[in-house]
DNA sequence: TTGACTTCCGAAACCGATTTTGTAAACTAA
DNA sequence: TTAGTTTACAAAATCGGTTTCGGAAGTCAA
């Protein structure tokens, strides 16, 4: 009644009905050359025996896994990237409806990331990849294109014409961000950016610069710092910017994690965030609503992005030309309480800070 | 030189060397009945052709997937559970070294959770499961034991004798928590718990109650509330407790998410957390260090728990008796700044709150 | 009645590995 | 020298599906 390994096989079903196993397979795959009677009997037996086809066996013959892969880079001992967590959550939820599964792997260096992709391809564990946090020149993309292996990127690169991607309009968003800050009355605006090889970090920095230019404000290199995308990075970035002779009254941060760290430092130094110092983040993480004061941020809904990208990848796997699946989304400013008109001039700010050192 | 589907198969290697494919397989699986010369030639060819065995084909024959599964429950539109994110991160990191992969799936109801486990077993996509957030009577455990399918639980149930689990000593931890609060001078201590069907929520509640009893404080049912394990739940729980005629001066929360929400409400009501009101969480989430004030919490390192549990599961899959793999860990109190001696009596607190309603 | 078409399904090949079985050649022992 | 063992590998079976091929039975037109 059951296969030697305990579970019901197609052979069991076929024997139970008295047909060839090929016939069972054809019924299950909706072939039309099966009489209604036979179909009924087979379907009944499938239900009765609780038969599910083995995806392993099916994959072997069809060459498809019905599994998508994601390789998440991990650094040192630090915790999970909250943005990626939301993103993965969104992918998994979408896949549930699409009858696919998600394989999550980690890798601790750029080299290891590449090797992991290679291993998953060679071992045929996945049909395609979702890439996150694309770099300006992304070796993963070169590799996967060379292999002609399906993938969709979350984020673009310096030349995004030939592959499928979903991205937010980072530059426009940060131009708006600066405009918003200038509208509030800020003239000295600091920027806490991310590693320069990350594409979105560059685009947001460009947006910051162009926004300043639009407002007729002269760029000042010392107002731009670059940090790892963690709370600690935010602390350090804010520390540097506030140590300037004339510190900025507003801090535009490239992610929420950075912004939360920056907020922390500001409070530690006795500044009222949203008054003495304005801080704006980017990601729209749920936790941002629960820090003090609640973080004003650009929201891109990591979760729905995950779902959207999963669907794009399935299209690409099924043969859609990747170059036709490219989508630019907008990020919305979610105003909470960490921004406001500057309560102090940069000079007053500097004086207040000197007292607390 | 390469199989019809693009990748190198064992047949390609065999032909290249001029041996039977079974011989190649034996070399790769370290059989001893192969001459040194042949072994060398085959190994060289494997390297030259860049051959990796197809895990699909291998699985079919061996009946093993080298993949572990986790089904994460998701509710409504809410974001990812930050504890689970850390936990999954830990699992994935550990598996990287163990040459296994992790399949992450979501399910949106208890019924769906069960069905998903069933599907993954029947389709033979995983070798075992990791269960999280065990319930007092957990249907997943009944189901998997009935199926004789390997799993390890993070958390116990009302009868944890017969399966493998890793858990923290929830009750002892919360007894310590109460002791700590009493030591600070608190006499009126509120408890924000989680859904009563979650085992850890019950154990922590029992710890809370026993801790009070040890301190000779009479239990008061109105000081215990039950909420969903989200920031919103924390907000609502704190709202209820602070609305009491004589509100508690300390809030013991069953998770960090709840504690962060509770902190939020307290600040909104004008209370100084760590002075007027003490709040303690549980999970040791990284973000806890970045809220204001930094959250005092019991830390259980979700990440290392994930790694440990992955290793346990592999042992169970390989035949270890599950009942012999049970591990009780301790949680450490990480003192940050959300706790302290009560600056106000409950009466003063109530008065202060009346002003801000 | 016969040849041409459908309809429906059994039989067998196939996917790419692992494992079992069998055997020629070399080696050992008597 | 001969029988018995090893050694080292080829050949074939197998895992559980999907897909191709082909043929029996029934239908239809001439």
TrEMBL record, chains A, B:
Pfam families according to UniProt: LacI (PF00356), Peripla_BP_3 (PF13377)
CDD domains from the UniProt entry: HTH_LacI, PBP1_AglR-like
InterPro entries, alphabetized: HTH_LacI, LacI/GalR-like_sensor, Lambda_DNA-bd_dom_sf, Peripla_BP_I
Region (Disordered): 334-357
Statement: the UniProt record of this protein carries the keyword Transcription: yes
Keyword vocabulary terms for this entry: DNA-binding, Transcription, Transcription regulation
Domain HTH lacI-type: 8-62
Record keyword Transcription present: yes
The protein's name: Substrate-binding domain-containing protein
Organism (species): Roseibium algae
